[in-house]
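Design a sequence for this backbone.
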């Protein structure tokens, strides 16, 4: 049992906390000594040693800021010495080709995936909000007043005057080089040892002090937000509210299809937040200017607060689409605005965000989600906005009637819409036509027979398999849950909690992914409506009517009592799987944004019923999660494998088209390979 002898007063917890913080500070000092060697003061002059110490402080704070703001969570715990040895001292080889150079890096510690993550986060940090822009401007103005730049003496030649490059000097690669005033001041010998030497030393002191203050402010802001349990990110807050709304939707309330209506709502929400933030950020000029999604930035206030704008835009969408919960959204908006500085920027940001939200609502008012041209008809009693397709008793046809059929005409958010008389497509290369499922009434249809045998075996409720049961249940996401689109929003929320993004980048990520989710709706519902394919339960029980020898003896036998592991037949035509198309679109959008698929994540879906209840699952990559989600529909006995595979291809095609063409920078380069910058 330990004890502390101290003269401090206060509670035991406060005293222990004080000494813990002191010990932590000593560890930081030790880290600085080992990483930057700031105790090696071997010069003969006091001022030279002082400059050397200050350079060590500057190097430590720069390294710490790099670690806190740029590095992925997986390596944020590395010491500065480890970062030097593993990240910066990396073996490399530069290969010169006829028209370009290739830089090859050794993958001892810095793997290709890790390098891409760091690069993506550095690019994201280049977009600074109004707050940081104002802070840097204020620091620069204060520095200029306190430390005026002296003129070159008359006897100094032109070459020595150019030792200090002019601000914004264009380098040979066409990009603007940062000001090198600090380095120049340290390397240029003063013409006399009088006041100018004192001024240069004062500048170094001021720079070291300012950088230390900045490191403390940034670190304190991040730590304070975490300790207070508050999220400064409106993307996280308002997407959470949207998921809660989706959980409460019934089929009639959602125009006949909760998953489709939910995907549309999430896309409207995140597109509005992106356009609100992008409009203000684009007012700062290149290189942060980006394409808008629906609302151009023409009237955006450049000095508006982006947080106020995002919250106001999200409030307008949810209050307009879910008016029964308007009181909740009003309270959340008031809370968001109260956390911001009162005044002109917050007010103008709110006005702009509200304008963007109302414009998005108007643009999507008659988008095909309702027969009447307005989703408000779905809230009437009885609802009048949903279209129903009757069942058909012929072999190969879906037996029951199903609603929400009008979503096959949902206008896209990001992909090119079909022309007159064209079917909804899913690929950006030549408007690839939706493929037919393997026909079950052709004697030579071996593919259908193989898929038939597969689902008959793995999806059979009579064959007990706890792993398959739990996998199906985990991804089932039926009524009262966030639905498949909402589950992938939860994935994005989990990933961005581990890899925080600045608000402009966060809104772009969620806008891209939610547009991909919404744009899978029309192709998915179109194929269901057009092919009207029967479900495995009906196909297996009536296999003797399909005209396919591979579903008859000796390959298979008719089983009129067969039941799916899910315990249900399915509420809509089989081809193709909506779970699969939603999952593939979201996974591809996430992988494209981060320029890496192999980002691990942990997810607990809303389907937690059962004994025992589902536990969180870990996935090594986005594609692994999508593959399991798609396959879960086969082991549940609800879909054939060809339906799963075609839907996965559809979702990937939608995401690829959106990543290639939407929300891009207005200045080159727009992509890093296939990954949008």
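Sequence:
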């Amino acid at each position: 049992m330990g004890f502390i002898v101290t003269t401090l007063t206060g509670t035991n917890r406060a005293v222990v906390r004080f000494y813990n913080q002191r010990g932590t500070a000593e560890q930081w000092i030790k880290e600085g000594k080992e990483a930057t060697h700031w105790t090696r003061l071997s010069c003969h002059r006091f001022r030279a040693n002082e400059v050397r110490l200050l350079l060590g402080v500057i190097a430590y704070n720069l390294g710490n800021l790099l670690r806190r703001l740029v590095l992925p969570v997986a390596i944020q715990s590395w010491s500065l010495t480890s970062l030097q040895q593993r990240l910066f001292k990396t073996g490399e080889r530069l290969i010169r080709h006829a028209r370009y150079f290739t830089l090859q890096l050794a993958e001892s510690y810095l793997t290709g995936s890790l390098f891409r993550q760091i690069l993506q986060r550095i690019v994201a940090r280049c977009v600074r909000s109004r707050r940081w822009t104002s802070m840097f401007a204020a620091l620069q103005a204060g520095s200029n007043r306190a430390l005026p730049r002296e003129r070159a003496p008359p006897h100094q030649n032109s070459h020595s005057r150019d030792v200090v490059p002019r601000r914004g000097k264009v380098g040979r690669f066409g990009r603007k080089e940062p000001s090198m005033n600090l380095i120049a001041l340290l390397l240029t010998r003063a013409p006399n040892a009088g006041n100018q030497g004192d001024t240069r030393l004062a500048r170094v002191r001021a720079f070291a002090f300012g950088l230390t203050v900045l490191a403390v402010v940034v670190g304190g802001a991040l730590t304070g937000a975490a300790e207070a349990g508050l999220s400064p990110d409106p993307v996280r807050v308002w997407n959470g509210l949207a998921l809660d709304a989706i959980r409460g939707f019934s089929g009639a309330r959602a125009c006949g299809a909760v998953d489709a209506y939910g995907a549309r709502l999430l896309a409207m929400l995140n597109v509005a937040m992106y356009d609100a933030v992008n409009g203000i950020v684009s007012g700062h000029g290149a290189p942060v200017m980006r394409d808008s999604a629906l609302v151009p930035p023409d009237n955006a206030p450049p000095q508006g607060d982006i947080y106020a704008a995002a919250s106001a835009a999200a409030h307008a969408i949810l209050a307009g689409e879910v008016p029964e919960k308007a009181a909740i959204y009003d309270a959340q908006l008031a809370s968001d605005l109260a956390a911001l500085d009162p005044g002109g920027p917050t007010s103008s940001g709110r006005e702009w965000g509200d304008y963007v939200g109302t414009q998005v609502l108007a643009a999507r008012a008659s988008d095909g989600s309702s027969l009447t041209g307005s989703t408000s008809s779905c809230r009437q009693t009885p609802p009048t906005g949903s279209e129903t397709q009757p069942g058909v008793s012929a072999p190969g046809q879906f037996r029951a009637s199903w609603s929400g059929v009008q979503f096959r005409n949902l206008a896209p958010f990001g992909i090119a819409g079909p022309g007159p008389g064209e079917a909804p497509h899913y690929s950006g290369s030549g408007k690839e036509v939706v493929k037919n499922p393997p026909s079950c009434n052709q004697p030579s249809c071996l593919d259908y027979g193989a898929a038939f045998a597969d689902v008959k075996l793995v999806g059979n409720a009579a064959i007990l398999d706890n792993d398959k049961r739990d996998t199906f249940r985990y991804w089932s996401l039926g009524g009262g849950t966030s639905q498949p689109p909402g589950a992938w929003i939860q994935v994005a929320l989990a990933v961005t909690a581990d890899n925080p993004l600045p608000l402009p980048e966060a809104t772009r990520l969620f806008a891209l992914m939610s547009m991909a989710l919404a744009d899978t709706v029309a192709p998915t519902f179109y194929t269901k409506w057009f092919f009207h394919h029967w479900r495995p339960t009906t196909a297996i029980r009536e296999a003797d009517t399909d005209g396919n020898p591979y579903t008859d003896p000796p390959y298979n036998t008719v089983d009129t009592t067969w039941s799916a592991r899910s315990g249900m037949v399915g509420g809509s035509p089989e081809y193709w799987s909506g779970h699969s198309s939603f999952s593939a679109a979201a996974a591809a959008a996430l992988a494209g944004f981060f320029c890496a698929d192999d980002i691990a994540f942990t997810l607990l879906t809303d389907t937690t019923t059962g004994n025992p209840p589902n536990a969180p699952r870990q996935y090594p990559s986005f594609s692994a999660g999508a593959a399991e989600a798609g396959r879960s529909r086969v082991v549940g006995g609800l879909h054939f494998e060809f339906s799963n595979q075609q839907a996965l291809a559809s979702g990937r095609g939608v995401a690829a088209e959106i990543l290639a063409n939407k929300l891009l920078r207005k200045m080159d380069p727009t992509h890093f390979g296939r990954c949008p910058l």
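Residues 195-228 form the longest helix (34 residues).
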